Amino acid sequence: MRIARFSLDGTVGFGVLEGDANTEGGPVLDIIKGHPFAEFERSGQKIPLDKVRLLSPTLPSKVVAIGRNYAEHARELGQEVPDTPVAFFKPSTSVAGPGDPVGYPAFSSEVHHEAELAVVIGRMCSQVPRERVHEVVLGYTCANDLTARDIQRSEAQWARAKGFDGSCPLGPWVETEVDPSDLAVMCTVNGEQRQLGRTSEMIRSVEDLIVHITEAMTLLPGDVVLTGTPAGVGPVNVGDEVAVTIEGIGTLTNKVVKRG
């Protein structure tokens, strides 16, 4: 099931995506009564996908991101694979939706793309045992952990480098039925492939990460866990169109613009 968050005529709601580009009449959203973080019903009211504006599929209270979870990515940065997961936060204000313009931060001259599988939490949870991780996950979406690499190198904390406005595009929707253990993760810039890896290359699995994070903190419905990026990260510039595609989920596209 693919669950999208959308805006139409000033109203925001959730819907279940039905059909695709090959379906007669094109894909539609079956509007959800309420929200997807509890039991819900489909209303039967269907709206063509091309009539709505897709928004970030969730508004998280926090984004918990994991660094250096692919060995090749750690090596390309000249770093060792960490003994324990490296966790950091991206604030809720960093979240952008599919198609949203992303402003290039004025304090940086080296912003990099980082394509990632994002886990969307479906229920409040703490100290989750491995065998119950699947119970707290709503589904998965695409993410771009945009990083001001020059600032990351020069500042001991990553708050500005990783947390600037628009640095966490998410979307285009949440896929609830995909197996995250071996999915292709790709990033293109202006149609040119930059990153291509598989989630099976992650040092620590989704289950490992949820267990590790919830040992320390409570995750709330709608919170997001970023699982790390494969090798191939590189710079983006004003005017670039960056697309993150994850097998079985979809494509998240954003354009980099000059920050006003």
How would you sum up this structure, described in words?
The structure is a single chain. It is built from 5 helices and 20 strands. With 260 residues, it is mainly beta. The chain has 2 domains: 2-54, SH3 type barrels (Roll); 63-258, Fumarylacetoacetate hydrolase, domain 2, CATH 3.90.850. Strands 1, 2, 3, 4, 5, 6, 7, 8, 11, 12, 14 and 17 form a 12-stranded mixed β-sheet that branches. The protein has a 5-stranded mixed β-sheet with strand order 9-20-19-15-16, with no helix packed on it. Strand 15 (184-189) and strand 16 form a beta hairpin. The N and C termini lie far apart (38 Å). The model has no long low-confidence stretch (mean pLDDT 96).
Topology:
Layout: E1 2-8, E2 11-18, E3 28-33, E4 41-48, E5 53-54, E6 63-67, H1 71-76, E7 86-90, E8 95-96, E9 102-104, E10 111-113, E11 115-121, H2 133-136, E12 137-144, E13 147-148, H3 149-154, H4 159-163, E14 168-175, E15 184-189, E16 192-198, H5 206-214, E17 224-226, E18 234-236, E19 241-246, E20 250-258
Parallel strand pairs: 6-17, 8-14, 9-20
Antiparallel strand pairs: 1-2, 1-5, 1-14, 2-3, 3-4, 6-7, 10-13, 10-18, 11-12, 11-17, 12-14, 15-16, 15-19, 19-20
Shape: globular
**What's the CATH topology name of the largest domain?**
Fumarylacetoacetate hydrolase, domain 2
Our count of domains comes out at: 2
Average pLDDT score: 96
Summarize the helix and strand pattern as letters: EEEEEEHEEEEEHEEHHEEEHEEEE
Rg, Å, rounded: 18 Å
**What is the H level of CATH, i.e. the homologous superfamily of the largest domain?**
Fumarylacetoacetase-like, C-terminal domain
Supply the CATH architecture of the largest domain. Alpha-Beta Complex
**What is the name of the CATH class of the largest domain?**
Alpha Beta
* Beginning-to-end CA distance, first to last residue: 38 Å
Indicate the proportion of strand residues.
35-45%
